[in-house]
Specification:
The strands form 2 sheets. Strands 1-7-6-5-4-2-3 form a 7-stranded mixed beta sheet. 35% of the residues lie in helices and 13% in strands. Helix 4 (170-177) runs antiparallel to helix 5 (181-196) and helix 7 (215-233) packs parallel to helix 11 (308-320). It is built from 11 helices and 9 strands. Helix 2 (58-63) links the parallel strand 2 and strand 3. By secondary structure, it is of the alpha/beta class.
């Protein structure tokens, strides 16, 4: 029986009646979205994964006892060599920084049903019809949990429990009233809880958050900020960035710098830039390209909380460095 009365809950204004990728499966993390896809592949014997990726992709592989092989990428963030897939082998390609949408289509065309597209950094990348791909909306907005899987096999999400996130929201609330550093430990702890949680449907709280945000504004603002940075930093950026028309919406502006101290200098100026991904330093050698990318690509925030003035400040700080 539905309860009536009592105290108020956190209310959400529903901007959209449907959510992005509405024909997808909504799960509790990007890692679980990959696990969901792997579970649905009946004939998988091995997965090729890039050295330049997050080590969480290994967790579902190890859980499901699926062997894996590594491959290397080029300076253009594309496969450095032609990989011929054997019987039962699949290939995972990462849509790096959300700027490789066009190349994802090339991978899908080449490898067909045996391609899995990691769109964790490319929430707005349009799903490729008939291909397996997954997304991580938590990287684009404040949500206590959330992952999305688009599959080429029948959905079985109704067989999964619905996750509960009420005890994983503290860092989101602190971010409103405190400086980021004061909620960072809870952010890490809540992220750990999600990793340890079982494969489940996206929590009710996260579904309501996802339905309430203005997705078009998020996309528009991110693209504007990206373009502003690229106009100022593009000529000095060692990373080749394709036309802005070749991707839907980036996660960050990736600036490949020769200054190994640039990340540290920006953080000292309260411009918090993340390192993707620390595990690469263990997987690769210092003279490997992937090691260089993880070390020297500065992932500059461009998200919807910031305006052109904030991007100008970042450019000035980089020029001072």
């Amino acid at each position: 029986m539905k309860p009536i009365g009592g105290y108020f809950e956190w209310e959400f204004s529903l901007v959209k009646k449907t959510i992005l990728h509405e024909n997808a499966v909504y799960l509790n993390s990007g890692r679980h979205a990959l696990e969901y896809i792997l579970q649905g592949l009946q004939n998988i014997k091995c997965l090729w994964i890039p050295y330049f990726t997050c080590d969480v992709v290994l967790q579902p592989l190890q859980k499901l006892n699926i062997p894996y092989k590594f491959y290397r990428i080029s300076a253009d963030l594309e496969l450095s060599e032609n990989i011929e897939l054997g019987d039962g082998e699949y290939l995972l390609y990462t849509n790096y920084y959300g700027i490789k949408d066009d190349y994802c289509n090339q991978i899908a065309e080449k490898y067909g049903d045996r391609a899995i597209i990691d769109n964790a950094q490319a929430l707005f990348c349009k799903p490729i019809v008939g291909k397996n791909q997954f997304y991580s909306p938590r990287k684009f907005m404040g949500m206590p949990d959330g992952g999305i899987a688009v599959t080429n096999f029948p959905n079985t999400e109704n067989l999964l429990p619905v996750d509960q996130s009420f005890d994983r929201c503290s860092h989101l609330l602190k971010r409103h009233e405190l400086i980021p550093a004061e909620g960072y430990n809870e952010f890490k702890e809540n992220s750990r809880k999600i990793t340890a949680a079982p494969l489940s449907q996206m929590s009710t709280i996260s579904q309501k958050i996802f339905k309430s945000v203005d997705l078009e504004f998020i996309k528009k603002r991110r693209r504007e900020n990206f373009e502003t940075l690229h106009k100022s930093l593009g000529d000095s950026n060692r990373l080749n960035i394709s036309s802005l028309d070749s991707f839907e919406c980036p996660l960050v502006y990736p600036y490949w710098s020769d200054d190994a101290e640039l990340k540290k200098k920006l953080i000292e100026k309260s411009i918090f830039v993340a390192t993707y991904w620390p595990n690469v330093f263990e997987w690769c050698k210092p003279d490997d390209l992937e090691y260089n990318l993880a070390s020297n690509v500065v992932c500059i925030p461009i998200d919807q909380r910031y305006e052109i003035e904030d991007m100008d400040r970042i450019v000035k700080e980089i020029e001072r460095c």
